[in-house]
Each structure stands twice: as C-alpha cells, then as structure tokens.
C-alpha cells in the first residue's frame, strides 16, 4: 500500500503536502516524491527512502507553490529506486501523477502504448497510467483521466496534475481509499484523513469508481461517466493528538499503553448487563437463521479469528471456519445455506480479505465487517460493520486493534450464545469478566520493567518458539508475529501439541521458548511440553496466571487470572511488550519495520 497527499490553496503547498505525507508513512516508506507547479513550471522531486529524505532535498530547492501532490511508496512492481518512485510523468512531461493500488492489466496497456511510440522510464504499473493520461489528453484534464482510467483493471487511487491546469488536481479511485479535506479557500488530499486532521476535520470520502476535480474553492465529484455526484462533508471524529506520538518514543508503545482505554472503548454501548448479553444495534441478526460461520482475515486479524472460532463453537455450538484470506481465494468457495461471514480487518483495506469477502458475500446469509477505519472499503462491502473504536493505529505492528477485535468478538459470541440458549447467569458472569479486562490490562502494563529485564536476557537469540494450546495457540502465533515484525527475529508460533511431530528437533539452548500458558483446560499438557523443552536444555519464558507454579521456566511473567476465552487479550499485552523491548534493545525501526506496510492493499 502507498500513501498519497496533496494540497491546493493559498499556503505553502510543499510544506503541507509533505506534512500530510509524513502522517501516512506507515503506509509504505521505500521511496517518496512530490510534484508542484513552481513559477508556472511543473516540477518534481523524488528520493529513495523515507519522507524525511525527500523533505531535506526539497528544502534545498526553496520552491514556492500553492499546488502539489506527493507520494510515499511500498514497492510492488519494481524495486525501491528513483526511477520507480512516484510521481510519474507522461511522454510530454506536462502531466504528473501519484498512485496507490495495483494495475492488473498494466503489461497489456504498456505494450499498446509502446506500439504508439511511448517509451517507459520505470518498471512500475503506475507509469502506464501517467502515459495513458498523456495520450488521452486533448486539453481537458478531467476527461483525459476519465478516458485513461476506463482502461484500467485492478485497484487505484490517483492524483493528477498538469502544467496547463495550475488551478486543479484531478482525482480518480477504484477500490483504493482517497479523501479530500475542506478548508477555507484551500483543500487537502490524503489516502488517510487522519493525516490532515491538523488542518481540517471536514472530509469528503471518494468512493470506488469516482472522479473529482479539486480547486482551492472546493471539489466537484463525478461518476465514471462524468455525471456530477452530490457528496456530504463529514466531520472527522479524530483530534490531532490521536495521530501524534505524544511523549512516547514510538507509536507502537503509545498504542500498547492505549489498550487499557481502547479495550474499554471497544465494549462501550455493547454490554447488556440485565440480560447478560451484548448489544449490536448496527447488526440485524434477529431475522437470521445462522447455522455456521466463516471468518476471513490476514495476519494479526487472522489470529483474532482463531480465538473467535474457539469461543463461538464452545458458546454457541455453531461450526466455524477460519480462513487465511490469501489462501481462501484458491479454495472452491463452498458456502452452505445460512452461513454468516465475518471479515476482520483493522484497516478495512487489505486486498486479500476484500477479495475473499467478495467471493463469498453473495452466497452467505449475512456479512459483517469488524474494522477500525470508518468509510474504509470493507465497510462499504459488507451488510453491516462493527467498529473497534480503537483510534488510529499507526504503528505497523498491530497491537490495540487486536485486543479490541478480541473484546468485540467475545461480545458478539456472547450475543449469539444467549440467542442460542446460554443462561442469563452464565452470560452475566462472562460479561463481568469482559468488563474487568481494562483493569487487568493495566496490571499487565505495570509489568513493563520486569519484561524489560527479561528482554535483556533474550535479545541475543535469533530463533524462538512461541507455544500454546487451545486459546493460547492464537496467542502464541500473535506473539511470534510481533517479534518477527519489529525485531526481525525468526520466531515460530506453534500449537504446542505439534512439537512432538517434528519441530521439537529445533529445541536447543540457543532457541528459547515462550510458553503461553493461560489456558486452564490445557495447562497440564503445557507443563509436559515444558518438560520436553527442558529435557533438551531449551530456555523457557512462561506467561501464566498469577498463583500458578511453573518451576521449569527460567523466567515467568505472571498475568491476572481470567477465564480462558479472554486470556489471549492479557497474554498478548505481555508478548507485545516483550517484542517491543527486545526490538528496542536491538535498535530496530519499530514503527516502520523493513519491507512492511500498515495495510497491504495489493494481493
Ligand atoms: C500485524 O501486526 C501486521 N501488521 C499484519 O499482519 C496485519 O494484521 C495484516 O496485514 C491484516 O491487516 P488488517 O487487519 O488491516 O486487514
């Protein structure tokens, strides 16, 4: 995924476009570039690396401009290089554009353009768009963009400038996010509205297959046939503080510490104490005869789906399948009648999850999106959405979104369970445990210095196992993913019962094991696993409930006691801190790890 920014108005367009771009660097940071009209000339500057490198390079130019577009890239086609950095120009060098998405038919179009005598300067799919616009241009930029994008297959959000049109920026979208912030005689453009909230909270979201002409006076939105469309200006529910690190060294640490609050926010308005159930006014479940469910997700969200599946099956006796979305698309999507589909995605823009959902949504009885971003693509594709209300998650490694997903999924499972015969008393007991989570999360966070001490002893290792059973298996997967992502350590999350079927061959004094043991049902079996690890001189970090004994472990992190179904939330806060402290000791780039982007909007 990439980040787009733009500005047109009466202020310093370059400074504002760069500032908006910096607020989206989590979307990709391989290279960055900017275009502006300076003294009537269309100028561009590109740099490999982060936005800061581009900013420094631009400061030397001392350009003055009131119109600009900019881009930060996560490389898909073509490695990170100056030639592949956006913006890309057309053959006349009078048109420049930036793009987020992936053009699936770019090779066909490239051949066609080459046959017209166009020569290409990059390996990107994006350059096909800029060259197409250049070929279609006959004096009207909006019409040229409309003609060009009508040839494109795939996903795109583009911002286009032309030297002959110094007072307008043309936008076009298809399945990639783009929004416009409205100011006083100035307009702001971004992939993510949180990036311009410091300038305005009035936002217009472009939906898929829309075009727009943006001038300093405002914006006109059109359908693909250039018929005008009315759009409402919405008010962003964000403050500038939501998107700043505050006193924290990293967004990730800020977001780990926000979990006491975000876990509380996740359950607001969803608890029905009297009935021992949950409320989801945004869902229309009562008329449904749900007989099974399929959960679609990727990465951390997939791990949340695994926890939800265990809970839903245990509490409702409904069969649940959890599918890795990127794999599901190669499965025959066999959907039985009365199947509920739940798509989990923090960003709401993950291409694999969206593709899997689109394969199912017309065959299922109801589709629900569990998402953290209002107006994201996912929220427009499902029958109903439930929002995490976790606030913007900017650290590439997901933390507070995961624990908020688990809170909402447990409440959802509780609601279904109560509809399917669970007693009020049992429901009230579960609800009380859910409502006790914020304080328990706080207790785990208070263990940071203890976890820092443990991290010092283990930051030297290059390989880890994370083991767990039942509810702790997804927690093990999630803990391992965090260490992989931000500390670049080979950490394998595994079902502890699987170790004896081969992986135990890797147990060695130089390959420590993090044992996620907050599952009472499987605790005796986990103890046996620890014996097997210890017998082979493996070091052990145990994460276990207070009051439990675990002599075999070299280090222990005690967690407040909670029912098994909710234990992944508390265990994960501990594994987030462990990964963060190890990555800090290793001096890693925690908020923007190499090769990653916050949301993968390409397949
Ligand atoms: C999590 O730390 C990763 N950044 C990644 O696995 C992420 O969870 C995955 O890409 C899914 O993203 P989504 O929740 O926005 O769909």
List strands and helices in order, with pairings.
Elements: E1 3-8, H1 13-22, E2 31-38, E3 41-48, H2 51-61, E4 67-73, E5 88-89, E6 95-103, H3 106-115, H4 126-136, H5 141-149, E7 154-162, E8 169-174, E9 178-182, E10 187-190, E11 202-206, E12 210-215, E13 218-223, E14 228-229, E15 234-235, H6 251-257, H7 259-267, E16 271-272, E17 277-278, E18 292-297, H8 299-316, E19 320-324, H9 325-328, E20 339-345, H10 351-360, E21 366-371, H11 377-381, E22 384-387, H12 400-419, H13 424-435, H14 437-445, H15 448-458, E23 463-468, H16 472-487, E24 490-495, E25 513-516, H17 523-534, E26 540-545, E27 555-559, H18 567-585
Parallel strand pairs: 18-19, 18-20, 20-21, 21-22, 23-24, 23-25, 25-26, 26-27
Antiparallel strand pairs: 1-4, 1-10, 2-3, 2-4, 5-6, 6-7, 7-8, 8-12, 9-10, 9-11, 11-15, 12-13, 13-14, 16-17
Helix pairs in contact: 1-2, 3-4, 4-5, 7-12, 7-14, 8-12, 8-16, 12-13, 12-18, 14-18, 15-18, 16-18
């Amino acid at each position: 995924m990439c980040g787009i920014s733009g500005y047109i108005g009466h202020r310093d367009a370059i400074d504002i476009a760069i500032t908006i771009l910096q607020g989206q660097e989590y979307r990709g940071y391989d290279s960055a570039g900017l275009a502006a009209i300076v003294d009537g000339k269309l100028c561009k500057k590109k740099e490999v690396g982060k936005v800061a490198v581009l900013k420094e390079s631009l400061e030397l130019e001392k350009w003055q401009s009131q119109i600009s577009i900019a881009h930060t890239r996560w490389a898909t086609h073509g490695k990170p290089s100056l030639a592949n950095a956006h913006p890309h120009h057309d053959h006349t060098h009078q048109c420049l554009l930036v793009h987020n998405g992936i053009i699936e038919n770019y090779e066909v179009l490239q051949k066609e353009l080459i046959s017209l005598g166009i020569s290409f300067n990059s390996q990107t799919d994006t350059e096909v768009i800029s060259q197409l616009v250049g070929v279609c241009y006959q004096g009207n930029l909006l019409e040229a963009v409309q003609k060009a994008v009508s040839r494109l297959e795939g996903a795109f959000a583009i911002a286009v400038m032309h030297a002959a049109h110094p007072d307008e920026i043309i936008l076009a979208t298809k399945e990639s996010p783009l929004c416009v912030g409205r100011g006083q005689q100035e307009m702001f453009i971004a992939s993510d509205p949180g990036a311009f909230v410091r300038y305005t909270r009035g936002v217009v979201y472009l939906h898929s297959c829309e075009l727009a002409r943006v001038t300093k006076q405002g914006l006109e939105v059109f359908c693909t046939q250039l018929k005008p469309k009315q759009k409402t200006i919405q008010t962003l529910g964000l403050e500038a503080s939501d998107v700043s690190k505050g006193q924290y060294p990293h967004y990730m640490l800020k977001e780990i510490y926000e979990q006491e609050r975000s876990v509380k926010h996740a359950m607001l308005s969803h608890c029905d104490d009297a009935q021992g159930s949950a409320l989801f006014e945004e869902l229309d479940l009562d008329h449904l005869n749900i007989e099974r469910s399929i959960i679609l997700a990727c990465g951390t969200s997939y791990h949340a789906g695994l926890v939800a599946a265990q809970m839903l099956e245990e509490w409702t006796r409904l069969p649940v399948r959890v599918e890795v979305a990127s794999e599901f698309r190669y499965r025959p999507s066999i959907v039985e009648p009365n199947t509920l589909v739940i798509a989990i995605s923090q960003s709401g823009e993950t291409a694999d999850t969206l593709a899997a959902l689109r394969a199912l949504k017309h065959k299922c009885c109801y589709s629900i999106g569990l998402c953290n971003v209002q107006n994201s693509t996912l929220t427009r594709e499902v029958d109903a959405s439930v929002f995490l209300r976790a606030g913007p998650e900017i650290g590439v490694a997901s933390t507070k979104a995961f624990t908020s997903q688990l809170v909402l999924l447990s409440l959802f499972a509780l609601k279904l369970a109560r509809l399917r015969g669970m007693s009020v008393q049992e429901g009230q007991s579960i609800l009380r445990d859910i409502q006790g989570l914020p304080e328990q999360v706080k207790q785990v966070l208070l263990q940071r210095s203890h976890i820092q001490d443990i991290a010092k002893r283990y930051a030297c290792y290059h390989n880890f196992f994370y083991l767990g059973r039942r509810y702790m298996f997804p927690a093990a997967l999630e803990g391992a993913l965090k260490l992989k992502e931000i500390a670049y350590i080979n950490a394998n999350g595994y079902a502890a019962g699987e170790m004896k079927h081969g992986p135990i061959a890797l147990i060695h004094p130089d390959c420590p094991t993090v044992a996620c043991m907050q599952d009472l049902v499987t605790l005796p079996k986990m103890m046996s696993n620890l014996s097997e690890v210890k017998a082979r001189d493996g070091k052990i970090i145990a994460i276990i409930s207070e009051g439990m004994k675990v002599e075999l472990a070299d280090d222990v992190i005690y967690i407040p006691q909670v029912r098994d179904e909710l234990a992944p939330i508390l265990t994960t806060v501990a594994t987030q801190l462990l990964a963060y402290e190890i990555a800090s000791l290793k001096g890693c780039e925690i908020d923007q790890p190499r090769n990653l982007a916050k949301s993968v909007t390409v397949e």
